[in-house]
Amino acid sequence: MSKFIYNEQGKLDLAQMRTNSTLPTDAYKYYDDKLVKVAKQELRIVQDCVEAGLVDNSLNLGDTIVSYDKLADMSEAEASMDGITRSQNGALTFNQAGVPVPVYRKDFELDQRRIQAVINRGSMSLPSTGLELATRKVAEKINAVCWDGFGKTVDGMSLNGLRNASGVNAVSATASWGGGSETPLSDIESMIQAIQTDGYGFTENSCVLYVSPDNWAFIDNDYSTAKGEKTYKQRFESYSPIRKVELGSGLSDGECILVEMRSDVLELKVAQDITFYELPQVDPMLSQFSVIGSMALIVKSDFDGKSGVAYLTGA
Amino acid sequence: MTKYKYILQSSYTDGEGEYFPSKSVIELTEEQANSRLFENKLIKVEEPKQIEIEIKQPKQKEETEAETEVKTEVKTEKPKKSKKKKDK
């Protein structure tokens, strides 16, 4: 029987919790591999934040709200030949903002007879479907919150997603992609132009474009019948700021999101990485497990409401 | 469809490629404004309401009372004047 043990950082101490639990160590390793595999497949935004170094792991499960500062720009620097002319003092203006950090959780169970079969016979026939499905459900929920926000207000603070955060640049597509009169290149150019007008997206390969699943097949078409050598996906990736085009699991039909992966645009605050543990056993024939994670994706805008995110609909 | 004025809280590029910067005023139908694209990005401009002011006419009874008061005042003044005349 396991119990909840927290380490000095306030996160679940899984090694301690698993010491006296029902499953053998090898089974935990097997399950961990499965969990990581599914989580990596599903959590593309989280993975992209990890790649771009936009993850803050300093939170613990006791942190229900995380705050950050909205920063205003400084006045211009002075250029002179003598170097004596003093510049105007730039006082930074901050506006405090904060978001709640939700906990995502999905439970599943295994019957003791199967677990005993694994322990006694040394076989690895432990069913992983429950864990994989629970992980997928947690990942889907995290994705949904990344797009749409948490939807609940805590102490007057709310967690908005990439679609509905204030300041996110809104773009309407010319026409639905695949309908015949679509202009996908001009739609993507409008998105790039929108974030560049706000002062973002000038760095090469700094942005990720998420495309809704319904258009994922469409962007594999050749973008020009005359040239016929590049697909829309490749053409999008050849725009200077776009590093890669990703599948936006959870986006509605005809939606795209362009994000500059920069710490003043996006930050992922992690209180607990996705993991699984055994719940205290109440039925001797049944072991219950839980897949859990706690994180918040902060979509930032500056003091003037400018943002490095563009949101396209109607594509 | 009736269109209403909204203040944009972010930039908006419409389907024809026209760019509206943040804080600009655009006209949208209620259906367009309620679409997912504009969630948390619009503030409705409230049209100034017409305030109706009722001008109440003074009641007739009050008028007659006021008139009688004046009349009585005049009546009371009269003897004073007559007294003065007598003094002279």
Give the tags.
heterodimer; A: about 325 residues; alpha/beta; Major capsid protein gp5 fold; hypothetical protein PF0899 fold; 2 domains; about 25% strand; B: about 90 residues; 3-stranded antiparallel β-sheet; 2 helices; elongated
User: Which structural category do the helix and sheet elements of chain B fall into?
Assistant: alpha+beta
Mean pLDDT of chain A: 87
Low-confidence stretches of chain B: none
Q: Give the overall form of chain B.
A: elongated
Q: Total domains of chain B, how many?
A: 2
Rg of chain A (CA only): 24 Å
Order of helices and strands of chain A: HHHEEEEHHEEEHEHHEEEEE
* Secondary-structure class of chain A: alpha/beta
Largest interface: A-B, 30 and 20 residues
Provide the helix percentage of chain A.
25-40%
Secondary-structure element order of chain B, as H and E?
A: EEEEHEH
Strand arrangement across the biggest beta sheet of chain A = 7-13-10-8-9
Characterization of the model:
The complex is a heterodimer of chains A (315) and B (88). Chain A has 315 residues and is an alpha/beta fold. Helix content of chain A is 27%, strand content 26%. Chain A folds into 2 domains: 14-71 and 95-161 and 267-299, Major capsid protein gp5 fold (2-Layer Sandwich); 169-264 and 305-313, hypothetical protein PF0899 fold (2-Layer Sandwich), CATH 3.30.2320.10. In chain A, strand 5 and strand 6 (157-158) form a beta hairpin. Chain A is globular. Chain A starts with 13 loop residues before the first helix and ends with a strand. The model of chain A has no long low-confidence stretch (mean pLDDT 87). Chain B has 2 helices and 5 strands. Chain B has 2 domains: 3-44; 59-88. Chain B is elongated. Chain B has 88 residues and is of the alpha+beta class. At the A-B interface, strand 7 and helix 6 of A face strand 2 of B.
